[in-house]
Every structure is written in structure tokens, then in C-alpha cells.
Amino acid sequence: MQKKLLQWLELCGLSATVEVFPPRTSFQFPNNKILFLISGTMHLETISNNKKIITYLNAQYLLNLEHFLYGHATKYALISDTSIRVILLSQKDFHLLIKEKPSFIEWLLTSNAEISAKMITEFSKKHESPFYKIQDSLITLAKANIIKPVLFMPEWLFLPKFITRTDLANYCQVSRKTLQLEIKKLQKRESIKIENNQFFIHQSFFLKDT
């Protein structure tokens, strides 16, 4: 898709380059930009003293959060968790592009619909018990291919180290203390294990009747 996008931009007489940003780069809105996330992982968080991680996004997405979040865009930021590769387009250039290639607006709408569904899922955790908040959060990360299988440990998956214990508690909407208590319970059940500061989850944990 990256190659196709660059080809169409060239055909439309528009210039764009693939830019690389390091982890912890913040993209705040409104910035009059369409962001194409080619590779890497980002998360959406609130901008406040008491930040909240809303959801994680793994490439590829075509993002126009300023439009998607309507009048609330200034309350959120996209933060890179890994090194990311992106193409940034102005609203003007994107409008020129979709006149020539309408399928890109369909892709944008699909991306926004997926993010909307993810946000509904995340906000619905509010009234769940700590266990189900943690389970649902890890299931969502696994579906997004952020939690991945361990090649040398069949039946186990690992949580990437860029999601710290504090980040995980924040994302699961539980306190750090509650997260620690739940982890200890899950370790006794052999659903979770921690080795060399690496967080592993057994695949059985992702079954809803666990």
C-alpha cells in the first residue's frame, strides 16, 4: 500500500516522503495532516496530567484523527511506541489525491471505523472486574498483533517491552497495585509468567471461559 500511495501521489503531481520517527514521538491535533502509518506501533492517549492510554494501533492505518475526534481532537495525542515509518499529507493534498483515486477515502473511512470499534471496546471495560479488564485488554492487543507468539515456547505469547507495567495498568484501567495482585494470581494458575523481566501469557488465558 505504501508503494501504491507514493505512485498515486507522483501521478497527481504531489510530493511526499516516508519519514522515520523514534519511540515517544507525539503527534497532536489539530495539525491539518493525514497520517499514513506504514510500520510500527502507536497508541492514542489523553493529554492531561492524568493521562489515559485509550488504544494501541499497529500498522497499517490511514489516520485523520482531527476529523474523527471532531471537536475533541485537542484532548488527544498519538504517541509512537516503537520506531515508526509514516507519510504525512496535508488535507489539501489528500483531497487532490482522492479526486484521482476515490478508493483512498474508503480506506480512510475503514481505518476510522476500526478505530471507532476499538475505542468502544476499550471504553466498555470501565464496569468490568479487574480480571476481565486485564483479559479483554490483552485479547485486544493479541488481535492487533502487538502481543505475539514466542517462537521457542509453544503455546506462549509475549508482551512487548515498550508496554511497561505502568502502561499496562493504565491501559487496563486498573491501579498498579491491582494489576500486581492479579498477575500474582495468574502466575499461580500458570496463565502468566515473568522471566528476565519479560512478560509471557499462555494462550489459554485468551479463552473467555478461563
TrEMBL record:
Keywords (A to Z) from UniProt: Activator
Transmembrane segments: none
Taxonomic lineage: Bacteria, Bacillati, Bacillota, Bacilli, Bacillales
Protein species of origin: Listeria aquatica
The keyword Cytoplasm is annotated on this UniProt entry: no
Protein name according to UniProt: Crp/Fnr family transcriptional regulator
InterPro entries associated with the record: cNMP-bd_dom_sf, RmlC-like_jellyroll, WH_DNA-bd_sf
